[in-house]
Amino acid sequence: MSKKGRILVAMSGGVDSSVAAVMLHEQGYEVIGLTMKTWDYASAGGSLKETGCCSLDSINDARSLAVGYGFPHYILDIRNEFGDFVIDNFVDEYLAGRTPNPCVLCNTHIKWEALLKRANKLDCEFIATGHYANIRLQDNGRYVISKGRDENKDQSYVLWGVSQENLARTQFPLGNFTKAEIRQMAMDMGQVELAGKSESYEICFVPDNDYRAFLRHKVEDLDERVGPGNFVLSNGSVVGKHQGYPYYTIGQRKGLGIALGQPMFVTRILPESNTVMLGTVDELDRTSARVRNLNLVKYASITEPLEAITKIRYKDAGALSSIVQEENHMRVDFHHAVSGIAPGQSAVFYEGQDLLGGGFLI
Q: How many domains does the chain have?
């Protein structure tokens, strides 16, 4: 074993994880590559060519790179665990009138657990991924995630659920690099095709980026179970019919199939009555929120009000807020109203560049 130790690197076949593996290899770690097969495109009802991190091409790209640099590579089939947890939760959340956050669940409950389980079997001290984020051990003994240097690529938002135990064995080699620098590294490695690989921002298991068709595929009698319901304004007036509440999300404007003389947005979803509430853009504003399923990162608890930046979606710039734990949830009071709080999505708290923690919006 090398002096730096043995490290298991999650390799999707994309440029980020590939460069991360090579960087660690060149730094003197004994690298072992692992590609996780999380889902099967055909069984998900897709009609287009299979693409993304679980495609055969991506798996072959990861293995080819590992062979070229002389380190082992394995494929781990976790389709059953992924489907039972992430996909089932995705469907259940929409049926509950919420907007799910599958990438967070996948990182927290599937990928990290699968990586560490295999790392233990292979005597790997560490695991590594190609996320754009940083990690450090602070004086209070807690491991802290902080934002990646590339603000446009920072992925700390989807990492709020990773436990302290798992963070203690995690490395993020790309945290201090920009995406452009990583692509250039791939070019310098002679991996021209890898350097030019495009990125997908879609949910990996939703074919053709059509979550409505995916829901119908997974719940065959969905339209019979739900059926059309009412579009209702805040004053209680019924203004039209919708196709069924699972097919709508908070903040949605397009695809409503209704004209009321001004832009209208989905402001609330009531699954118990199959009602979709509509309102103006101002009716999306909220000054407070509650967050469940907390995982705190920087501090063990936040029992006194703390000023933080709260992000309610991945590409959100964040809003200044005051946060404090109340029993089993976090109360968030925004200094200025924020728009489009969607139950089920992640609320993630920051102190400067550091990730305080996060949870799911109620």
A: 3
